[in-house]
Amino acid sequence: MSRASRSAATVAPAPADVRVGVLALQGDFAEHIAVLRSLGVDAVEVRTLDQLRAVDGLIIPGGESTTIARLLIAFDLLDPLRDLIEGGLPVWGTCAGAILLAKHVPSLDRPPLAVMDITVERNAFGRQVDSFEADLKVAGIDGAPVHAVFIRAPIIERAGRGVTVLATLKDGTIVAAREGRLLATSFHPELTDDRRIHGLFLQMVAEARRAPAPPRRPR
Ligand code: GLN
Q: Would you put residue 123 in left (φ > 0), alpha (ψ -120 to 50) or beta?
């Protein structure tokens, strides 16, 4: 069986009525939209507060975290998005998106959203030429390993007490983690034919819709 058919078999059907936004200020948002639509999800590009308020979950794509951080401020989305996340909005950050979720990013020149208790090191594997691929066992994902693409990727140097580590490289480096309704991956599932991490996030979005909002966390 090919990787594509194997992974397709293990992705639960998309919840019919969830709308998932992809932050579309910079980076590879179009690839996430295409994957979500291929799974039958109502997927929308998000650039305005009205669009942000209309989604049940949000993906922050890979790209350049310094640029996305600047644009979040320029589009007046940084504080409203942080408020929505603290009110329970499920968010998945891939690569640059994971950097923006982190509470601690020593090498970012603009404030990140700072909502997830992780410390992230940007460009931890070096330059663009040091990009690589690896097969990962991801907690909660059954079947074959997830083939992960790392492009000038960050690593999760430290995961706080409330954070569950979902995947590590062979040397123990953390590359995927979850804290409540927040998911962070150092790699780019939208660039492969494996839909299972998108499936995991869709489950998180569907669960959040069924459950009441969690208590707001102090900043
Ligand atoms: N190196 C980028 C940054 O630090 C992230 C790369 C990516 O998203 N693929 O923002």
A: left
Q: Across all residues in the chain, what is the average pLDDT? A: 91
Please report the atom of ligand 1 found closest to the CA of residue 63: 8
Residue 214 has pLDDT above 90, yes or no: no
The answer to whether 23 and 190 are in contact (CB under 8 A) is no
Q: What is 16-207's CATH superfamily?
A: Class I glutamine amidotransferase (GATase) domain (3.40.50.880)
- Tell which wins on pLDDT, 115 or 218: 115
| CA distance readout (Å), 91 to 2, 9, 126, 173 | 30, 25, 27, 22
| Model pLDDT, residue 8 | 46
Q: Ligand 1 center to residue 17 CA distance, Å? A: 32
pTM confidence score: 0.92
Domain boundary assignment for the chain: 16-207
What residues form DSSP beta bridges with 164? 178
- Cβ pair 59, 91 in contact under 8 A: yes
The answer to whether the CB of 186 is under 6 A from ligand 1 is no
Q: How far apart are CA 144 and CA 116, in angstroms?
A: 28
Residue with token string 């992974």: 7
Give the distance (Å) from ligand 1 centre to CA of residue 145: 23
Taking each continuous run of H as one helix and of E as one strand, the counts in the chain are 7, 12
